[in-house]
Amino acid sequence: KEIAVVERNPRHGKFIAFKLARHWVALPAVAVLRIVNCPPPEQGGTIDFGVVQLGPHTIRLLDLRSRWKLQPEAVPEKLPFLLVMRGPQQTLWGIALETPPDLLELPLSTFKSVPLEKRMNRKLQWISHMTVITERDIHRTLLLLDLKAVFQSKVSEHTTKRPRQNQSHASSTQPVRQN
To answer: What residues are paired with 145 via a beta bridge?
Structure first.
């Protein structure tokens, strides 16, 4: 499976990387619309409820910490940064971050695909590739988020949570005839 990155140098790709608990996660830079300061609750930053209001735009949040059952090193009081991307049907999605993300340019050849059988694991199902990068003698594993899998999962979660019309329930609203 190829990494979807459109760049001038076809052998390198630009990625937005961010720390999530003890892990480093990345997205292709072309998938990110912008990175903004996350507004406080009194200005639309209702992160606890899974949405952020930025002016006229409602942004649904991907809560990767909960999805992967990650424990932060310290519980953040505030998530000051918001990484914004566009999902299916032009829906805006965001990931709230504790620290500003990094812009990295990496050789695509260093990324290794996560085998499909490993992606059955809940923690890995949204990860398509992995790589190890070294910076100043510090090695860190970078997990590439598979946005197609993320949004496909979110759409199916949304459709399965919708209340369904039940025939027996609908007929129970009719008046009872008394003799």
So the answer is: 127
Distances (CA, A) of 55 to 4, 29, 86, 147: 30, 24, 16, 25
d(CA 15, CA 159): 31
Q: How far is Cα 8 from Cα 14, in angstroms, rounded to an integer?
A: 10
List phi, psi (to 5°) of 23: -110, 155
* DSSP structure class, residue 165: -
- The pTM score is 0.73
Q: Which residue has the tokens 């072309």?
A: 30
Say if residue 176's pLDDT is above 50. no
Q: Which of 64, 75, 76, 83 is nearest to 23 (CA)?
A: 64
